[in-house]
Amino acid sequence: MKYSTRDKILDAVYKLVYINGYNGTSIDMILKECAIPKGSLYHYFKSKKEMVLAVVKERIAPKMYEFYDLKKVKEENSIDTMIRAILKVSKKEELVKFGCPLNRLNQEMSPVDDDFDKAINLIYERMKSDILSVLKDSSIKPDVDMDSLAEFIIATVWGSLSLSPKHSSKKRYLNTINHLIDYLKSLKN
Amino acid sequence: MKYSTRDKILDAVYKLVYINGYNGTSIDMILKECAIPKGSLYHYFKSKKEMVLAVVKERIAPKMYEFYDLKKVKEENSIDTMIRAILKVSKKEELVKFGCPLNRLNQEMSPVDDDFDKAINLIYERMKSDILSVLKDSSIKPDVDMDSLAEFIIATVWGSLSLSPKHSSKKRYLNTINHLIDYLKSLKN
DNA sequence: TTGATTTTAGACTATTTAGTCTAGTTAAAG
DNA sequence: CTTTAACTAGACTAAATAGTCTAAAATCAA
């Protein structure tokens, strides 16, 4: 099980684009980061854009889905499963430090590039439906609109993570997100 | 009262950087947008960075403060003033379409540039204290932590606005933000 | 009007950018 | 072992990049 050149590239691009953004990351930075020659890079990917789109699908997407595949603890109300997922976010240091990688790329690329917009939206919709499937078998007051609640959860988590990355800390995230948790608890039937 | 070259530049840069980001906006794009020669540009600003920092201070900042200087309606609980401010955001088409300009720039520049980080943080802190001063004379349940509540409000609004700019609409914002409003109402004493 | 200052004009430069191309090397398959 | 395919290597290109420079024009103050 060796560390393939392609994987090396995707890891480097993920890391660099996460922090510097798409336009802030040059091919040369990538080559330096993974110490490979240009020929190899363009052997695996036909352009920078295709490369970063591969990162979206193969690196960012799995990281996003990861947060909502919590196994339900027996007898637990599903809303508590949701709360556990939200709290678990604080354990991922890079998220608390640099914000959500999907959200970052979304803000930079969605308004100016259709392919990025589509790729990112696909992941967003899947996240949303994952959340919905957790919420739907929880006992929530009947008058609550589930769809907008799922969006509210994502928006709040993303927003909390995006508050001034350099200064945000685990504690700050938890303080902010605590209000979301209180709200979710208040929706229990 | 003429439209000065400097203002013309700041307006163009605001618009271009808002949509394309800092690294996605070139000097040539700016020159084309405001139809001035390079000499003029570099007469008013010594570098691209200084130019965009001026946009942050002179264009973005006022737009941000604008949303929290609502006059309190007589007899109104201040929390309702807050809610009115949050709802008013939906009336600004560009916000709903492209997200919060401060948040966008923050995500792109704060992790990689100290000067941007500082300038943006200053605005953020002022917004937060504006919100706090509205909240502090409202009748909110005593056990609520005001500071994190102010951050929660900003995070949620920013997050709601950042959900997939291309597809977000006024209605989507309002649906999402409605949960925040319900939560705020529940905090009334 | 004159003289000083501010603003405009855009050609020019050095660097960086994404991407190409061809030759060489390594690995896989028979 | 030999042949074919996958991969590496990096020099090279054309375009775009931020920023400089000098001279001309417009504006302002006396």
Short description:
With 189 residues, chain A is mainly α.
Task: Write the topology of this structure.
2 copies of one chain form a homodimer.
Chain A: H1 5-20, H2 27-34, H3 38-44, H4 48-66, H5 78-88, H6 93-98, H7 101-109, H8 114-136, H9 146-162, H10 170-186
Chain A binds a DNA duplex (30 and 30 nucleotides) through residues 5, 26-28, 36-40, 42-44, 46-48.
Structural class of chain A: mainly alpha
Number of helices, counting only DSSP H or I runs of 4 residues or more of chain A: 10
CATH homologous superfamily caption of the largest domain in chain A: Tetracycline Repressor, domain 2
Quaternary state of this entry equals: homodimer
Architecture of the largest domain in chain A in CATH?
Orthogonal Bundle
How many β-strands of chain A, per DSSP? 0
Biggest interface: chains and residue counts?
A: A-B, 48 and 48 residues
Uncertain residue segments of chain A: none
Fraction of residues in helix of chain A: over 70%
Element order of chain A: H for helix, E for strand: HHHHHHHHHH
Distance between the termini of chain A: 50 Å
Overall average residue pLDDT of chain A: 94
Strand content of chain A: under 5%
CATH topology category name of the largest domain in chain A: Tetracycline Repressor, domain 2
